[in-house]
Amino acid sequence: MTLLSKPLFKKIHKLYGPPPTWSRPEGFVSLSMFILEQQVSLASAKAHFEKLNSYVKKFSPKEILKLSDQEMRACQISRQKTKYLRALSEAILKKEIVLEKLRELPEEEARAQLIKIKGIGNWTADVYLMFALQSKDIFPIGDIALVNTVRELTKADTKEEIIELAETWRPNRTLASFYLWHYYLSKRGRS
Fold first, then answer.
1. For residue 31, which phi and psi values (nearest 5 degrees)?
2. Which of 17, 69, 124, 138 is 20 to 30 Å from the Cα of 3, by its Cα?
3. What are the contacts of 123-127 at 24+ separation with CB within 8 A?
4. Do 35 and 126 reside in the same domain of the chain?
5. Residue by residue, what is the 3-state secondary structure of 130-144?
6. Helices 7-16/173-187 angle, 10° precision
7. Are residues 74 and 107 in the same domain?
């Protein structure tokens, strides 16, 4: 049974067409962006990233670690996210994680390596796996837009009910998530 045979996705497809093929390159820049996107709007995170990116010679772990707290604040990076970007930078430089090798690992092992780093939780690991590593069967239950969209379009309300519903979308939970985000953004006139 394909995803489009399910009434929910058939409805979204009929309203807005297929979702974009969202992806990001693997590596430090994308993972840093996902850290900056935690609990803020995409527009806000993008503005903060651009400010930080234009401040450093090259957006790299080494350059991030050179910045003082004051320089990070001047780039509108919160104290918390400064700690997270530094933790990621240190883990990469100490070879505690090799982002280029995550693709070779089983999904759960890649996730485990990511969430060992301070500031990378399940949501950040999920979206990195989905967008950068193109994992096909991820449903990021920590994503507020996805959860609210499921609540709006289905009878599922609790976290448990939403997880149970998402299980019926296996092995295409990433595509299901893309459809739900597509609905969420399209309904609000955003892309």
1. -65, -35
2. 124
3. 123/38, 124/31, 124/34, 124/35, 124/38, 127/34, 127/37
4. yes
5. HHHCCCCCCCCCCCH
6. 40
7. yes
Whether the Cβ atoms of residue 127 and residue 109 lie closer than 8 Å to each other: no
Looking at the structure, tell me whether residues 128 and 164 fall in a common domain: no
The half-sphere exposure of 22 on its side-chain side, counting CA atoms within 13 A, is: 20
Cα 179 to its chain centre, rounded Å, is: 15
Q: Please report how many Cα atoms fall inside a 13 Å half-sphere around the Cα of residue 52, on the Cβ side.
A: 29
- Smallest Cα–Cα separation from 30: which of 186, 116, 134? 134
Task: Say whether both 14 and 64 belong to one domain.
Answer: no
The first and second tokens of residue 168, run together, are 């019926």
How many domains are contained in the chain?
Answer: 2
pLDDT tens digit sequence for 68-125 = 999 999 999 999 999 999 999 999 999 999 999 999 999 999 999 999 999 999 999 9
Range of the domain at 46: 28-132
Same domain, 81 and 169: no
Could you tell me the two tokens for 174?
């990433």
Assigned token pair, 178: 């893309």
Residues 120, 34: one domain? yes
pLDDT digits (tens, 9 = 90+) for 130-163: 999 999 999 999 999 999 999 999 999 999 999 9
